Structure formats: structure tokens, C-alpha cells
Amino acid sequence: MSFIVGLLGTASTYKSQLTLAFIIGLVLLSLYWFYRYTIEPTTTPVKGLPQLPGSIAIWGNLKQLGSDHPTALQRLSLKYKFPVFQCLFGNQRIVFINSYDSAMEWFIKNQTALIDRPLFYTFHKLVSTSQGLTIGTSPWNETCKKRRLNVQRYMTTPAIKERANLIDVESYSMLRDLYSFTKANGPIYPYKYTQRLALNFTTMLSYATRFDDIDTPLLGEILDMVKVISSFRSTNNNLQDFIPLVRLLPENKRSAQAKNSSAKRNIWLDKLTQEAVNHKHERTSIVGDFANTDGKGRLNMDDIKCICVGLVSGGFETIGSTASLIFAQLCTENGELWQERLYDELMKIYDGDIVKAYQSVLLEEKSEFGVSFIRELLRMYAVIPLIPARKTCKEFTWNGVTVPEGITVILNAQAANHDKSHFGADADDFVPDRFLKDDSVNYPPYHFTFGAGSRACTAVNLSNRILYAGLCRTCLLFKVKKDPSRLPVVDYVDFAEDRQAQTNWIKEFGMSLEPRDEAMVEKCFSVSKNTCEEDLSYSIEYN
Ligand code: HEM
Description:
Number of domains: 1
Distance between the termini: 73 Å
CATH class: Mainly Alpha
Bound molecules: protoporphyrin IX containing FE
Strand order of the largest sheet: 1-2-6-3
Number of strands: 8
């Protein structure tokens, strides 16, 4: 300021007046640029929708949300009694949906208006540049529509039955290795085993390749890398998505890490794709199906690559996390009772024939308790608590409010799944009987863990089947035993190891498998080994 006053004082010549005008102009321009680039919200407020108080310049409401966004948003929604509100993440305006009924209204009743997805700087500009956008990260356009329709071919009830061998080989391998490890060494944290089940399922479906040895170095590398990539989609790990200034900082570590992980991922994905093409005549896979058409179908190789990356990333973490939560719940105080109840019910359904039950759970979901248990597990733990963002592609009206086109909307599945006005006072408890009753709760979509509406998870039925078969096979052959020195944390918020991740996974706990009848375990395992001989031979360790 004193500099400008000084200049004014001595601005006797025309030249210095010009200099002064130039400097003031430059300052004003810089301030304008600063405002437009980093403070001005990208969209105007939605008239009539409550705004979350406490927004500050540059940060918006981000600071007040701390490191656990879904829980903070859920708490604020209850505090202010706003099931739906808008807030600012940096300069991005986002509408959050936090209750069961409002989720139904926005994501199901108005699903055609919410079919689009917005683009985010980190994920879309840094991570996804070379393999292209997956279905789950792509805006709605002809390419996305075509790819989504093709994926649905692999997710129909007959298609799931046709690929039951994949559920067989992976649930068998998981139980085989957990059993042999815990028999020899005592309790173990099962997460890596459930992750391998999930990763293998998606790589088998996409590329007809799997990992058999839990200690294969590439498996560990892939598990780490996919976790890093997924963190780029989280709302609270990526300031640069919301605060444009952060993008300008030199040595932005997150951006460098994003590029690096994406480059590494592409190397192994390209290898898997090539393997699948090489084996196109002998092995069934999505890439192989495509290669056999000689590119004459509606899809091209880029489409296929994107579809497969999407299936691997969409399925791997979610199934892996939810499957380890099955073991966690079976290790709780009531876990033993639930195991016995399921075992008895399955014995009743399959006339005491364990081998028949062991095979049938791949093809049908006849145990009502088993179905309810998995449904409740998914409701209790929204492993992706904030559903990937949507963007309104047309105007619609909700509760008298006109929601315009171009608004970013995020469903807080954790909040909607724990909405006491829908699920009752025990909404925060794990009640595996919840979906056995004939009431308004036992009604699709049951919960919002798979998202909802036009862009909901394409693999709902497939995921339910994988989880059901895993649960039933475990209880048919084994008693899951807790490790008293490492009990699981089963609270729906505190269970998560890292509340900043996009997909939550459970904190370490210990469990072991005790056979109900060792001879029967061997018998069932040899049934799987024989039926899945060919799938087992697709393991990278044997090629
Ligand atoms: C417990 C298991 C799973 C959970 C909790 C889950 C959850 C989700 C969620 C929350 C979304 C976003 C939905 C939305 O915006 O409304 C999604 C999308 C998607 N999921 Fe899943 N998922 C699971 C398993 C799988 C599996 C096994 C696959 C593939 C084999 C898969 C493939 C996809 C795809 C392709 C999309 C993108 C859909 C689109 O944007 O049109 N998911 N999933």
C-alpha cells in the first residue's frame, strides 16, 4: 500500500501515471483471476435446497468435515435435520443425499436425470488418461451406454449360472488356503485371502487368468497398486479436485503418485489382455470372446480394455472387503449361533447331504437366513460410503425444488443405510434377521451399498451370489473361530482401517477355521479340485 501511495505522490509524469495504471490493472486482474479460478463456485446455488453452514473461502465446507466425510455429513444432516443439502467442496458445489427416502426419490424416481457422472481432475486427468474411462467413472454417452449394455450380458441370471465354476474355484481356493494356514499356524487376518478371491474372480471373468499362490509377489504388488488408484477417487484424499490452487503447486506428490500408479497398472493390464488374446481358442473370457469375433462386433479393443479395467477395479475391493466382514461377523459373540443356524437350515434344505449343499449354493440361494445375512451385511457396511458422484443431465423437481441440469450429486450410502426413520431404532446394529420379516424394510433396493438407479452397480446379483456361496460353504464345512487376542471391530464406522479411502476395509482381526468333519472337508475340496481343474490351470504360477 505504501508503495502505491509513494507512487501516487511522485506520479508527476505521464510515464509514471501509466506505470501506476498498469500495476493497478495487473493487481485487479490477478485478484479477478484468483477469485474466478479458486473461490467462485463452479455452479450457482440450487434455489430452495438448504445450504450447509460454515463455508469459508477457498476451502468451502471441506475443513469442517475432517477426515471422515461420510460420517461428518451424516452427523450434520441429523443435526440440522436436512436429509438433502448442498455444500461447497473447495469451489465445487455438491448436493448430498443422506436419508433412505430422499435416496429413493433422487436416485430411483428421478434416475434418468441422474444418469451422468462428472469429471474430476485427479482421476480423470491423471489416472485414467491411457486406459480410458471405466464404465463407473465415465459420463453418460454413447460409448458408455454401449459398454454398460455389453457388461450386462455377463451379469444375467443364466450368465451367472454359466460361470458358477468361477465362484467354485475361488471359494474353494480361499477356504483351502485359510484352512491349511490356520491349521499349521493358528489365527490369521483373512483380508488378503478375500482380496485374492475377488481379484481372481474379476481377472478370470475378464482375462481367464488367476493367482493361485497367496504369496506371489505380483499379487501383492497389484493389491497395493489398486488400493492406491482407488484412493484417487475418494473425496477426502484429493484436495486438488476441489481446490484448483493445489494443482499449481510444484511437486504435487498426489499427482505424481497418480501418474505413477496408473502407468504401473497399465503394464500388467496390457500383459493380461495379451495373455487372454493368446489363449482365445481354449479359454473363455471377455477379452477372448472379443478376440474371437476378429473385431467385427460393436465393440473395439479400447472398449474391451475399459470394460475389463472397470470390472477388475469395480469388483475387487468391494467384494474383498465385504467377504472379510463375513468372517468378522462370524467371530462376534453371536457369530457361533448364526453359523449353527445357517448350517442347520442348509442341512434341512439339502436333506443332510453336505456335498450336494456345497455344490448347490453356487447355483441357488435357498437359505432365507443366508440371504438375509448377506443383505444385512451389505446394509450395515456400505464399503463405498459415498457413492461415486453423479451429475444431473436434465432438470427435475423434488419437494417443490427445481434441480437444474449440471449439478453434482453424491449419495451418502452410509447415512441412508443407517436411517432410523426407515430401518428403526436398531439401524446401527447388525441384525441378520432383518430381511426375513415381511415388512416395508424387506423391499428392493433393501440398501444403497450398490448405489441405485440408472448407474447402480452392474454386478448386484453376481456379488450377492459370490458372498452367499462363500458364507454357506464356510459354514457347511467349518466352524469359524475367533482369536480372543484380536477380536474384530464391527461398528459400522469404526470397523474401517482408513476412513479416508474410497472403499473401506476392515481393521486387522484374527480368525481360524476348525473343520466340522475333516473327511467331509477333503471330500468337498476334491469335488472342487476336479470340477475346476481347468480353471486352476489358468493360474499364472503354472504358465
Ligand atoms: C460387494 C460388492 C460390490 C459393491 C458394494 C459395489 C458397489 C458399487 C457402487 C456403489 C457403484 C456405483 C453405483 C452408483 O453410482 O449408483 C458400483 C458401480 C459399478 N460396479 Fe460394483 N460393487 C460391487 C461388486 C462389483 C463387481 C463384482 C463388479 C464386476 C465384476 C462390479 C462392477 C461395477 C461396474 C461396472 C460399475 C459401474 C456402473 C456404472 O457406472 O454404470 N461391481 N459398484
